[in-house]
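retry 2 of 3: previous attempt timed out while embedding glutamic acid. Reduced batch size to 1 and resubmitted. Inputs unchanged:
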Amino acid sequence: MSNLSYVNNNNGAWQTYLTQIERVAPYLSEDLQDYIDTLKRPKRALIVDVPIVMDDGSIQHFEGYRVQHNLSRGPGKGGIRYHPDVELGEVMALSAWMTIKTAVVNLPFGGAKGGIRVDPRKLSVRELERLTRRFTSEISHIIGPQQDIPAPDVGTNPRIMGWMMDTFSTGQGHTVTGVVTGKPVHLGGSLGRVRATGRGVFVTGVQAAQRIKLPVEGSRVAVQGFGNVGSEAAFLFNKAQAKVVCVQDHTGTIFNPEGLDIKSLQAYVAETQGIVGFEGAQAISNDAFWDVEMDILVPAALEGQITVERAKTLTAKLILEGANGPTYPEADDELQKRGITVVPDVICNAGGVTVSYFEWVQDMASYFWSESEINERLDKLMIQAIDDVWQTSETNQCSLRTAAYILACERILKARKERGIFPG
Ligand code: GLU
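retry 2 succeeded.
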C-alpha cells in the first residue's frame, strides 16, 4: 500500500512500481539505502482543470496531470497519455518508470509523465487541438527544454506534439523546438522517432532470443496492441521471418497459425482504425489471445495485462514488454519460476525515449542527423543496455527486471547522494 495520502491505487500501477522498488532495495549498496525513499514518491505532481468549448458550443472539463517523479539526473522526460482511464496513481507510476528507463539507458534525464482523462476518439480534430493547447498552457510553467520535456504516449501523436510546441512557443514569444519530442520532422522532429519504440522492442528481443537460444526465424509471435509500438515490432518480426500468429487491439483479436501479413494489416488499420475484419485471419475472443500457442509474446498496449493466472498457462518462452507495466509482480514470480524470460519495459521499450533524447540533442544543436545515423546509434545503445542488464542479472542471480532496476537505482541514487539534501 502506498504511504502517500493523495494516492489510493491499491493493486494498480503505482503499487506494482512500489513492489518493484522493494524488490531491488536489498541489492543496492549500503551507502544508498538512506536514499531509497526518494524513489517512492514523485518530486512534483500537478493536477490541472482543462476546460474547452466543444464544437456544439457547450463547455466540457477534463482532468489533466503532469507528474515529475525524479529530476536528480536531468530534466524530466516522458510522454503525455490521452485515455479515459488516466488517473493520478497511473501517471505517477508511468513517471516513475520513466525515471528508471532513462537511467537504465543512461540518458541524462529524470522521469516524468502526463495525461488527460479523455477518449480522444470521441473528439473532433478541432476539439483535440483546443484540449491540447489549453492543457499545454496549464502545465507550461513546469515544462521546458531544461525542465521537463513531454513526448507522445498512448492516444497522442506527432501532430499533438506540434500543437504543444507551438502553444509553449507562443507563450515564450519565440520558437522553442526542444520543449517536446516526437514532433513532426519539419518542426524539429527527428527521423526515426515514430518507429523507434517498436524497433527497440525488436532489437532487444533479438538479443534476448539469441541468449536463450530461441531462433527468431519461424518463431510464433503474439502481439497485444497494434498502435505505434506493436505494429512496428510485428512488422520487424515478420520481416525477420517470424510468424506473427495473433494480434489484439481495441477492436478485438485476430489469429492465423500460418502468420499474418503485417504490411497488409498495417494498410488495413490505416484505413479502418482497427484490426477486426482483416481478411486472411480468423477472429477469436480476447480471452483466447492468452491461450494461443506462441514462442514470443509482445504486450504493447496498457499496464496490468499479465496476471498470475495468465502467467501460469502462457506458452511463450520470451516476453518483450513493449507496453509500460504490463506484468504484475506476482505474475513476474510465476514467469521466473516457469523459466520464461521477460525483457522488462524499462529496457525493452526504451527505444522511443532514446530517439527522443537524440531529437532533443538535435534541437539544442540545430543540426540534424540522417535516419541511418539515428538507427545505428539507437541499436548500439540498446544492445549495450541489454548487455549490461543481462550481465547484472547473471552476477546477482536475479530477473532481468531486478537487474535493470539495480543499474538504474544505483545511478539515480548516487546522483541524489552526491547532490545532497537541500538545505543541508
Ligand atoms: N511515451 C514513451 C515511453 O513511455 C516515450 C517517452 C519519451 O519519448 O519521452 O517511453
